[in-house]
Amino acid sequence: MADHMASRQPVIELRGAGLTYPGPPPVVALSPCDLRVWPGEFVSVVGPSGAGKSSLLNIIGLLDATTEGNYLLDGRDTAALGEPQRTALRGRNIGFVFQAFHLLPHRTAWENVELGLLHGGTPRNERRAAAREALVRVGLEHRLRAMPTTLSGGERQRVAIARAVAGRPSLLLCDEPTGNLDSATAASVLSLLDELHRGGMTVVVITHDSTVAEHGKRVLTIRDGVLTERVAA
Ligand code: ADP
Ligand code: MG
Fold first, then answer.
1. Which pLDDT does position 121 carry in this prediction?
2. How big is the CA angle at 203 (ends 29 and 34), to the nearest 5 degrees?
3. pTM here?
4. Separation of 171 CA from ligand 2 center, angstroms?
5. Average pLDDT for residues 96-110, to the nearest whole number?
6. What is the CATH number of the domain that holds 133?
7. Taking CA 117 as the corner, what is the angle to CA 70 and CA 44, rounded to the nearest 5 degrees?
8. Please, which residues bridge with residue 172 across strands?
């Protein structure tokens, strides 16, 4: 780790963090692992089906609690938090992008992004402005009032990315973000993630696709629940 990073606080810090489903029989979905992801990093986690990717994503995204060890998000230990606090922290600090976009079909692009800001208690006019700005950032200024059904797959994923970043989270967490896209569209979505990363966003992409993983500046591998850092040859 570079010296200049040593004094800063990681966005993600796993300390012996693991997840075992109780069963019976118990299933170790994530073996206890250590991980630090620093502000502004672009990290990919790649592994085959059943490797533990969703389990890791659920922990990092505060959707599941660890059964062993600790998870600190922006320096805050999440172990002792109750569900309302986890939900609030998730809403403030993490933007999610999923394979299936998850846009509301009867709302415009602009409304979809704005609705993503509801949890924060921001006044409506500020939400509108932040949503518009996020859509401009992803190159959809001309599609503000478009309904999702009139958008291409790539455009829908851009709306989902705008929704994820509009609240200025400290972490953008992407689960197979290009899984529903053809390869040309996937490339343009990945270059958007690169652009957000260049703008300072911390990005974690979870994928089974090694081509997608190569976009990470740092690539981790997960296999049989074991997370490994791929060290450059
Ligand atoms: P991936 O996302 O890489 O496909 P998962 O994290 O979903 O992998 O799963 C990791 C392992 O944990 C798999 O062996 C899976 O069968 C198991 N698993 C996932 N969810 C549960 C659950 N709710 N109960 C028991 N085992 C589970
Ligand atoms: Mg999965």
1. 78
2. 40
3. 0.92
4. 19
5. 94
6. 3.40.50.300
7. 45
8. 95, 203
State residue 216's pLDDT score: 84
Task: Find out whether the beta carbon of 53 lies less than 6 Å from any atom of ligand 1.
Answer: yes
User: In this structure, are residues 213 and 46 in contact, taking their beta carbons and an 8 Å threshold?
Assistant: yes
Containing structural domain, residue 94: 3-231
What is the 3-state composition of the chain as percent helix, strand, coil, each rounded to the nearest 5? 35, 25, 40
What is the tens place of the pLDDT at every residue in 126-152? 999 999 999 999 999 999 999 999 999
d(CA 224, CA 73): 25
What distances in angstroms separate CA 189 from CA 68, 117, 159, 176, one per listed residue?
A: 35, 22, 11, 11
Give the C-alpha separation, 175 to 57, whole Å: 8
Among protein residues, the one with the nearest Cα to ligand 1's atom 7 is: 54
Residue 231: per-residue pLDDT? 66
Provide the Cα torsion 217, 218, 219, 222; round to 10°: -150
Question: Is residue 54 within 6 Å of ligand 1 at its C-beta?
Answer: yes
How many separate domains does the chain show? 1
Q: Is 49 in the pocket of ligand 1 (CB under 6 A)?
A: yes
| Pocket lining: 27 vs ligand 1, CB cutoff 6 Å | yes
Asked if the model's pLDDT at residue 233 lies above 90, the reply is no
